[in-house]
Design brief:
Blueprint (H helix, E strand, L loop, with lengths): L2 H4 L24 H5 L10 H12 L4 H8 L3 H10 L9 H11 L5 H8 L3 H12 L4 H6 L3 H9 L4 H4 L7
Helix pairs in contact: 3-4, 3-10, 4-5, 5-8, 6-7, 6-8
Length: 167
């Protein structure tokens, strides 16, 4: 079989069709309405949580998202945590120190000093360690954070994996 036989039927085009990641929202309700059923468990109103989540997903810092929503940054961080986002200010060693304090093996003063964070960061890390994300709320906002990140990631991001998978 020759090259001309292999190339039979091939066409050359001048441009390639641009394809992006498709996102589909089949809920039929806006984000605040989906969060309404979790209002008692969230540290802010569903409307504020919606603003925090949307601003953070758009690339804003937790502080900027909090300011836009009119809530304290720690409230925004707690909200993001309850909605499934990783916001702990401590790394793996710091989390181990925090767990030792929670188990009564260290005093708070020692734990804060060993973790090398301030009181506010330690308090947020304690909240994150002692409160699980709300699974149903995570499902209700599924795709809000991931959709924006997919468009910014490398095309090979799914092949390279996540660095947290080694922890």
């Amino acid at each position: 079989m020759g090259l001309s036989e292999l190339a039979a039927g091939l066409e050359v085009t001048e441009s390639q069709e641009e394809r992006g990641v498709a996102t589909v929202d089949t809920t039929g309700t806006d984000l605040a309405e989906r969060l309404e059923q979790f209002a008692e468990r969230l540290p802010c109103t569903p409307a504020e949580a919606e603003t925090v989540l949307e601003r953070y997903a758009a690339g804003a810092s937790v502080g900027t998202a909090a300011h836009t929503a009119g809530v304290a940054p720690v409230t925004a961080a707690k909200t993001l945590h309850l909605l499934g986002e990783s916001v702990s200010p401590l790394g793996p060693t710091g989390r181990e120190i925090l767990r030792d304090w929670l188990a009564g093996e260290l005093s708070r003063t020692e734990a804060v000093e060993l973790a090398r964070v301030g009181e506010a960061e330690f308090a947020l890390a304690t909240y994150v360690e002692t409160h699980e994300p709300i699974e149903a709320a995570c499902a209700a906002v599924e795709g809000v954070l991931a959709a924006d990140r997919l468009t910014e990631e490398s095309p090979l991001a799914d092949a390279t994996g996540d660095t947290t998978e080694f922890l």
